[in-house]
Specification:
Pathway: Protein modification; protein glycosylation. It is found in: Membrane. This protein is of the alpha+beta class. The protein has one domain. It is 26% helix and 14% strand. The chain has helices at residues 25-39, 58-65, 100-107, 124-134, 156-161, and strands spanning 46-49, 74-77, 79-82, 85-90, 96-99, 138-141. The radius of gyration is 17 Å and the shape is globular.
């Protein structure tokens, strides 16, 4: 068992031998993707990385992904902007989806310090975005044809009841409006 996991965990999980701390998140992502690369690459076309409190309507996600060429290097998520990272990055809180070829390209370059950050910290999603940008992986706009967001990076309460804190707007790459009309009916 990893530090932090309870002994009565009955769900299957991988013990990646990475400490359960926020400062190890990037290392955890890399190790998980390496495991997928070594064990599951031939079994799937897309790979979803999500937190344990994420929710996806898989039938909606599947319908959305069917419109893309699964052989291309594609990177899906709720896009954030960040200072000088021109393409931004996908928020880990909303989940990240990679095609098989994008995941392969990332894993094969994780150890290249000219492409991917080597230091692990809590900015795991930003580190992945930097790698994807440096590898020319296509950042996919996951909003619907009306510009409504499908992948939401914060809790439902933040989006639907209380509204986002104005400070959160600075992270969003695409326009966001504080109402339900901003959320796609085809959420996944």
């Amino acid at each position: 068992m990893q530090h932090g996991l309870k002994d009565n965990t009955y769900l299957p999980y991988l013990d990646l031998k990475i400490p359960e701390t926020r400062n190890e998140l990037w290392n955890k992502w890399k190790e998980a993707f390496k495991w997928i690369y070594q064990n599951e690459m031939d079994n799937f076309d897309y790979f979803l990385r999500a937190d344990d409190d994420s929710y996806f309507a898989m039938e909606n996600l599947r319908s959305f992904l069917l419109t893309f060429n699964k052989s291309e290097d594609l990177y899906f998520g709720a896009r954030f902007k960040f200072e000088n990272v021109l393409k931004g990055y996908m928020s880990g809180g909303a989940g990240v989806i990679l095609t098989k070829s994008a995941l392969k390209k990332l894993v094969e370059n994780f150890d290249n310090s000219n492409i991917c950050p080597q230091k692990s910290d809590e900015n795991d999603d930003l580190s992945l975005g930097i790698c994807a940008k440096n590898l020319n992986i296509t950042f996919v706009d996951t909003r619907d044809n009306l510009g409504r967001h499908r992948m939401l990076p914060w809790s439902p309460t933040s989006h639907f009841i209380n509204g986002l804190d104005k400070e959160q707007f600075k992270y969003l790459y695409y326009p966001y409006y504080q109402n339900l009309e901003n959320v796609s009916l085809n959420n996944y």
